[in-house]
Write a sequence for this structure.
């Protein structure tokens, strides 16, 4: 059984539970020959700590280690101190493939210097659903050819710096009303519509993508029983056979409620591998990780996962690791100058995506301004927490006399109670969640600054600026616009913002 366990361990990617590689985890990785680890924000303190951590992981997992993170850009980043990349939709709004390639390369330089060789990006989901609770600005846009062209340029930049990409979430998470972290979504579209829209980016990317991540979504037209992660007709029938894809297929996190609330950890992992996945992201507890390894080992022993197919999976993973060796690639002495240049690049990219809706007006410098924003800094569980209201007030304070008012709940906040004193009122939206009926019916700021989900700009009959993210350079771009230093030249790459129809 030990031989089967060693094979099984190479087919999983695990979550780690601290900021250093403790002795028990080191033993677990070595015992089961685990080669994949995904790190999250809670595993990171600073560059010195993280580089030490990834170095210890390379030592424990060996030369074919795959050390991954989600560094998409925008709100979905894990290393928050490196140059802050714009979100996918900000790059889609800029519509500049060369700029996207430069950003992808800069992201890769930063994460490779920290010891990563696999980035779970770019997102290829096409977002035409204004109520999607988890994708929104993570998508490059709604047009298959344009959005995929920008995404592929980003991927080329990453690959040029030695970091593997993983396009996601196959066969498409853009048109869902449910977050698969919380429940199991269904996309009930006919095959022809899926092929025309959702499939298109993955079909285009198939010849070039190093890896593809699966979606925990049921597509009844493709497989009425299993979500894509566990569907052989989808992973093998469509991705492998129809699209001719030869790279690595990895599942999304198997601890997400769409899977974990319906299947046992071992059962789910075996189902995914039988369907055609090469690696299972076992990022639950240590107990579920051990359960996963044991279930996969038993499936290999019993022939449920035939040994030749297991060997083919291991070969694909070995090729991925060999093409993208883990570990820093550049001379450390070059790092400060390179980081300075990359921060300037990111600032330029955020500015290029800045988008105006309506005809927003700039209050004169020094004017009294009332800023209204959420009191709390929230995360949706996928993204990092948003920008604090005080930080926005400080940024606007460079130009104006700012009075800050915060609210805890948009649906109970009384907009009509604001003093009618002639102050220019700016609403800054700092969460992903759309506004409810009370706010939509009663609020009307002079300017709405949508610092996260661009669809929030549709919630009010007010001029808006959309940044597609809340990182410091996004807020700096807003201040530069207010100061008259730049114009908002981005074009929102999804329906509803430029005279096209959308249901809001």
């Amino acid at each position: 059984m030990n031989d089967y366990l060693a094979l099984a361990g190479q087919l999983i990617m695990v979550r780690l539970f601290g900021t250093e590689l403790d002795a028990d985890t080191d033993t677990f990785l070595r015992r089961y020959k685990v080669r994949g680890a995904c790190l999250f924000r809670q595993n990171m303190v600073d560059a010195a700590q993280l580089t030490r951590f990834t170095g210890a992981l390379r030592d424990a997992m060996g030369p074919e280690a795959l050390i991954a993170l989600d560094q998409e850009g925008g709100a979905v980043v894990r290393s928050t101190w490196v140059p802050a990349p714009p979100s996918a939709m900000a790059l889609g709004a800029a519509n500049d493939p060369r700029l996207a390639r430069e950003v992808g390369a800069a992201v890769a330089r930063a994460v490779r210097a920290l010891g990563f060789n696999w980035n779970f990006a770019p997102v290829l989901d096409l977002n035409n659903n204004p109520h999607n609770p988890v994708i929104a600005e993570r998508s490059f846009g709604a047009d298959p050819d344009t959005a995929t062209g920008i995404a592929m340029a980003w991927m080329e930049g990453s690959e040029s710096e030695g970091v593997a990409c993983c396009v996601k979430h196959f066969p498409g998470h853009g048109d869902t009303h449910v977050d698969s972290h919380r429940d199991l979504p269904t996309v009930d579209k006919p095959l022809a519509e899926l092929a025309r829209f959702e499939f298109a980016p993955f079909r285009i990317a198939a010849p070039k993508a190093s890896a593809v991540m699966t979606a925990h979504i049921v597509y009844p037209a493709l497989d009425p029983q299993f979500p894509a992660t566990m569907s052989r007709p989808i992973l093998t029938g469509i991705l492998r056979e129809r699209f001719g894809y030869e790279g690595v297929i990895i599942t999304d996190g198997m601890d997400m409620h769409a899977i974990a609330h319906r299947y046992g950890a071992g059962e789910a992992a075996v189902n995914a591998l039988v369907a055609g996945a090469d690696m299972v992201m076992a990022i639950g507890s240590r107990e579920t990780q051990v359960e996963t390894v044991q279930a996969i080992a038993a499936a290999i022993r019993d022939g449920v996962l035939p040994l030749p197919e297991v060997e083919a999976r291991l070969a694909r993973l070995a090729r991925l690791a060999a093409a993208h060796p883990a570990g820093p690639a550049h001379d450390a002495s070059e790092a400060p100058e390179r980081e300075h240049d990359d921060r300037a690049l990111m600032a330029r990219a955020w500015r290029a995506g800045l988008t105006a809706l309506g005809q927003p007006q700039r209050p004169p410098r020094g004017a009294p301004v009332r800023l209204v924003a959420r009191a709390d800094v929230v995360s949706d569980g996928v993204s990092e927490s948003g920008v604090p209201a005080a930080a926005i007030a400080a940024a606007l304070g460079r130009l104006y006399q700012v009075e800050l008012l915060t609210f805890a709940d948009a649906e109970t906040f009384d907009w009509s109670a604001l003093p009618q004193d002639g102050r220019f009122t700016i609403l800054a939206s700092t969460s992903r969640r759309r506004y409810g009926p009370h706010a939509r019916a009663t609020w009307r700021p002079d300017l709405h600054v949508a610092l996260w989900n661009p669809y929030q700009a549709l919630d009010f009959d007010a001029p808006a600026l959309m940044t597609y993210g809340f990182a410091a350079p996004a807020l700096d771009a807003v201040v530069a616009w207010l100061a008259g230093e730049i114009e908002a030249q981005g074009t929102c790459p999804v329906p509803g913002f430029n005279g096209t129809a959308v249901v809001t």
